[in-house]
Design brief:
353 residues, mainly alpha, Cytochrome Bc1 Complex, Chain D, domain 2, two-stranded antiparallel sheet, 4 strands, oxidoreductase, EC 1.11.1.5, Cyt_c-like_dom_sf
């Protein structure tokens, strides 16, 4: 399983130097702050990390990982025993659900289901940043009547009635057993191992010039220059983990509900672009059908309003430049590997049954 291998053995990557030739910005276009940077400099910003970080108060263990994997895929964590975390965050759909808006026990949700890829490196979580860690987030969907609709005061006895879970919790949390906090810690441990695999882009910056095409290489220059995409989608994970109003015509005020500042109205968390080709439709509201539509939105500059991010400015991009940006983003999707389903904990059968 790639996610487990990446967490235990780390992600290895080297990079080679080259020169990025960026097109100067024309009048009225977004500035190109990266235009003077060489690929030697940029490669350090896009180099994959060598290990997955785990918090001091929830360190990694194989026992905790195995338990978290069982819990993640177990529909018995839902009130009606039919929905698991993987129902909405499906590894076959780049750890999302492929829908424009999420769907749970209470019907259609207000926002698109975000991927859980690479959340080990994230701080604030959810589209509006209302959760501060994976541990803080883990039980939110379980408890929500719109999502998994499981009463938390009934969850511990529900799992404690399953012999296999009592054993697994004793192994993962010696002397502590089954608690809500430990359920959250186990799920969070598994989710931190969900890491996107190396992509053609990584092979290219490691020195393989044949790994991506010429259009994608031009797109990389545009991404870091004229189009200014890196202002929010920088770094190896292609996100600043920040919140920005990108001018979608939507009444949802996003981060503004959590942080009532003028700049946070209609602001949503910047998603990773890793494996982005597998996650259409796009944006928090699922309103953009494909990457071509995404590029068109940014080129237009978004809906003008006081909270619109300062990075959002109309761009004069040619049809070829738009195609080059899409070609580049397609190189960020790695090879998919099957994620095996765990054997779930079961009650011990009585003799003779």
């Amino acid at each position: 399983m790639r996610s487990l291998c990446n967490s235990v053995f780390g992600i290895l990557l080297t990079a080679a130097a080259a020169v990025v030739v960026a097109t100067p910005a024309r009048s009225g276009e977004a500035p190109a702050p990266e235009a003077s940077k060489s690929l030697e400099t940029l490669k350090k910003e896009y180099r994959r990390p060598t290990a997955v970080p785990f918090p001091a108060d929830n360190p990694f263990s194989v026992e905790k990982l195995r338990l978290g994997q069982q819990l993640y895929f177990d529909p018995r964590l839902s009130g009606n025993n039919t929905m698991s975390c993987a129902t909405c965050h499906n590894p076959a759909l780049s750890w999302g659900d492929g829908l424009g808006k999420g769907h749970g026990a209470g019907g259609t949700l207000g926002r698109r289901t975000p991927t859980i890829l690479n959340l080990a490196w994230a701080d604030l979580l959810m589209w509006d940043g209302r959760k501060s860690s994976l541990e803080d987030q883990a039980l939110g969907p379980v408890e929500s009547d719109m999502e998994m609709n499981q009463k938390l005061d009934e969850l511990v006895p529900k799992l404690a009635a399953i012999d296999g879970y009592r054993t697994a919790f004793d192994m993962a949390f010696p002397g502590e057993g089954i608690t809500l906090a430990n359920i959250a810690k186990a799920i969070a441990t598994y989710e931190r191992t969900v890491v996107s695999g190396p992509a053609p882009f990584d092979r290219w910056i490691a020195g393989d010039e044949s790994a991506i095409g010429e259009s994608a290489k031009r797109g990389f220059a545009l991404f870091n220059g004229k189009a200014n995409c890196q202002a929010c989608h920088g770094g190896w994970n292609f996100t600043d983990h920040g919140f920005h109003d990108i001018g979608l015509p939507d009444e949802d005020i996003g981060r503004g509900r959590q942080l009532p500042l003028p700049s946070m109205q209609h602001a949503f968390k910047t998603p990773t672009l890793r494996d982005v080709a597998r996650r259409a439709p796009y944006m928090h509201d699922g309103s953009l059908a494909d990457l071509k539509a995404v590029v068109e939105h940014y080129a237009k500059g978004g809906t003008p309003r006081p909270s619109l991010a300062e990075e959002m400015k109309p761009l004069t991009l040619t049809a070829q430049e738009k195609a080059d940006l899409v070609a580049f983003m397609l190189t960020l999707t790695g090879d998919a590997e099957p994620v095996p389903l765990p054997t779930l904990a079961m009650p011990v059968q009585s003799p003779g049954l």
